[in-house]
Amino acid sequence: MARPKGKPKRHLNTPITEELLKAFKILAVEQNRRLNDLLEEAMRDLLRKYGRPVPEEGQGEKA
What InterPro entries does the record point to (predicted)? Predict the structure, then answer.
């Protein structure tokens, strides 16, 4: 899978449970997507859920 071009991305380092990480990795394989792509999708969904502004997808990420 090719890396998207455009705006540089920032790194996020946070502890999560082993079970959550395993389930997330399995989902990524099943969907043939990178973990980062799924994480960005989840973050956007949470922003929408709580009525927060969501950056446009073309702003430094895969379109």
Answer: Antitox_RHH, Arc_rbn_hlx_hlx, Ribbon_hlx_hlx
The answer to pTM > 0.85 is: no
14 alpha-carbon distance from chain centroid: 14
- Residue 10 inside a domain? The answer is no
Q: What is the C-alpha separation between 17 and 58, in angstroms, rounded?
A: 31
Kindly report, residue by residue over 25-43, the tens digit of the pLDDT. Answer: 999 999 999 999 999 999 9
Residue 56 counted as domain residue: no
Give how far Cα 34 sits from Cα of 40, 49, 51, 58, Å: 10, 23, 26, 17
